[in-house]
Specification:
By secondary structure, the protein is of the alpha+beta class. It has one domain: Ribonuclease Z/Hydroxyacylglutathione hydrolase-like (Metallo-beta-lactamase, Chain A, 4-Layer Sandwich), CATH 3.60.15. 21% of the residues lie in helices and 35% in strands. The strands form 3 sheets. The protein has a 6-stranded mixed β-sheet. Strands 1-2-3-4-5 form a 5-stranded mixed β-sheet, with helices on one face. The protein starts with a strand and ends with a helix.
Length: 173
């Protein structure tokens, strides 16, 4: 699986294009649709995954879905279970705290998790915005700590990290 990170928009949000075989998934199409489309190239778009619906993560969503009429995977359209979409297999993990609709997408075969604004390198997403709740966030952190240490986390902003790194050095863990 190949992961392309694009930093887009005024809040420097990470949009990801995940490619496997001739297919791809779009994760958090924040803005700059032309850049997203360029990175898709000739790959077949199989679906769009949204970690939460803050504007910086969904600014190009409407244009993406109009151009690529595929399934949307988010808190409103998904249960907490495993999905197979084209060549991709991922689990939806609900982890509210930053927002009520926060989810992560875990690709167990690749040991990769897209966490949106749930977890950042040595930090977590803000809980003081509308829909945020620190007590709920603590429960989500306890839930994610049960996963294997060697999972690579791809956040909605900033650099990637590992669950092991966060368990050791993230003060919220």
């Amino acid at each position: 699986m190949e992961i392309t990170r694009m930093v887009v928009g005024e809040l420097q949000e990470n949009c990801y294009i995940v490619k496997k075989n001739n297919s791809c998934l779009i994760i958090d199409p924040g803005s700059e649709f032309d850049q997203i489309q360029k990175n898709i190239g000739n790959f077949q778009v199989e679906g769009v995954c949204v970690t939460h619906h803050h504007f910086d993560h969904v600014g190009a969503l409407k244009q993406v879905l109009e151009t690529y009429p595929v399934e949307l995977y988010d808190d409103m359209n998904c249960e907490e279970k495993e999905y197979t979409v084209g060549p991709f297999t991922f689990q939806v993990i609900k982890n509210p705290g930053h927002t009520t609709d926060s989810v992560s997408f875990y690709f167990p075969h690749e040991k990769v998790m897209f966490v949106g604004d749930f977890i950042f390198f040595q930090s977590i997403g803000r809980c003081d915005l509308e829909g945020g709740n620190f007590e709920t966030m603590k429960k989500s952190i306890e839930k994610i700590k049960k996963y294997q240490d060697d999972i690579t986390l791809y956040p909605g902003h900033g650099i990637k990290t590992t669950l092991q790194e966060e368990k050791k050095n993230n003060p919220y863990f």
